Amino acid sequence: MTQPAQQKAFYLTTPIYYVNDAPHIGHAYTTVAGDVMTRWHRAAGENVWFLTGTDEHGQKVLRTAEANGLAPQKWADKLVTDAWLPVLDVIDAANDDFIRTTQDRHMARVQRFLSSLKAAGHIYEGSYEGPYCVGCEEFKLAGDLITDDSGAQCCPIHSKPVEQVSETNWFFRLSAFTDQLIAHYEANPGAIRPESAYNEVMSFLRSGLQDLSISRSTFDWGIPVPWDQSQVVYVWFDALLNYATAVGLGDEPGTPGAEKFAQTWPADVHLVGKDILRFHAIIWPAMLMAADLPLPGCVFAHGWLLVGGEKMSKSKLTGISPQSIVDLVGSDAFRYYFLRAIIFGQDGSFSWEDLVARYTSELANGLGNLASRVQAMVGKYFDGLLPAPGTYTEADLAIQNLLITTTKNTDHAIRDFDFQTGIVAVKEFIDAVNLYVTEQQPWVIAKGEDAASQERLATILYTICESLRAIAALYQPIMPKSMATLWTEIGAEASGASHLISDIATWGQLKPGVGIIKGESMFPRIEEPETI
Ligand code: MSP
Predict the structure, then answer these.
(1) What's the CA-to-centroid distance between 107 and ligand 1, angstroms?
(2) Is the C-alpha dihedral spanning 480, 435, 526, 517 positive or negative?
(3) What is the pTM of this model?
(4) Which terminus in the chain has less CB density within 10 A, N or C?
(5) Domains of the chain
(6) pLDDT in tens, 502-521
């Protein structure tokens, strides 16, 4: 009997990060968004593949290594081990794979891909002359540049003078794909998001594309061009391929690589910052078209974290390390804050004041208090055992109904990359349950010793606990650690409740009689940091 084919994975990628420096919160922001999205799809019961990694070749990394007195491979190994892998733990990312562009699995597949493109006539030899920004690792057009006070032509992102490159290189016939790309995006407007990113790419495409130099000859830190050892592959051509090499691009049919590729490709989402949109929405799909491979479902370009109105960056000394924020509020609040405070797809300014204010009002006071109050009341009035609910009143049913719409709206918003709306929907549910507690006054009802009062008290406390069971499931992809604790404390684990998104709004999953634990405070009050 043949096995049924495994369902195609929901495949999401982050950009692979340059190892020229340690991560700052701008990098962690992309990874957190990807992690929340993939955890959400997992919680919906889907087969998921989440890839991140590091981009290790090119002039930028080479120069940093040289400046630090290390061979580039040693430098890359050090940064990956000391900084890029540890930051995944710091922000609690659950990636399925981590690709490094210096790994054999990547380099061999890149070379094979390049050879097949050459054989198909998409690559030719030519000469390149023009400006290059090492910070962006990008050949620039004159119109892209700005002039600084000294009259030098500079990259607008890095504010540094560009360098003139004049080389004989291998070229990819990018221009030949202009019409095909336009037709693809006209037919699939959701393939580039948000709309502003779509419009930017379309107007760039309509202005016409030039062929792209895809090799460099003046340094050797890269993947050798298979038929010309005097050249290394242009770092972006090398890097973009990671999304496909990591899942077995071009492997022989019947091999594990080919099987993995069939289960994952095409990627559903490439999450990128807006500065690298064109590479992903123009060069990358053209490379795939040239190889007759299916195109990714969507490139989503998020905005920048700004400091003083400018893109946060280590080179401008405005980088803040993820660890410094996690030390203050923990990884869950870190994850919550950036997706809650900034509309995904727009720029946003980070401020310690805003972080502390939201942590205190929304997490410590809003959610943390609700949990500790009900845990204390079940402890005091029912010896820590969840009571069975009696007859539900209108107020109780209103909470149950609100949970149905909350779950639906949150699911819709998060799948649609609108993390803020999704989080706010859950927050409003928490506010509604807090208001319910205030209005129902269980501590007053507890004074009545008659059976009706006891039944009413039990129903109120059960309603709050069930609400918290649902909140723990809804927030689990965003705040995995504290929500796992809440899930256990509120008796969901012991009740065998379902984590599945589609089951969250099913009322009554907590089993009366399970223990409700009063644990440590989930979001303890924090000392004001010195930076404020
Ligand atoms: N190596 C390339 C990507 C290759 S993907 C095939 C690269 N690396 S990077 O380390 O410079 O940037 C990686 C990601 O971090 C980009 O999406 C970039 O937009 C993002 N960010 C870097 N600084 C950022 C902010 N200040 N704010 C938000 N995102 C930022 O580009």
Answers:
(1) 22
(2) negative
(3) 0.95
(4) N
(5) 362-503 (1.10.730.10)
(6) 999 999 999 999 999 999 99
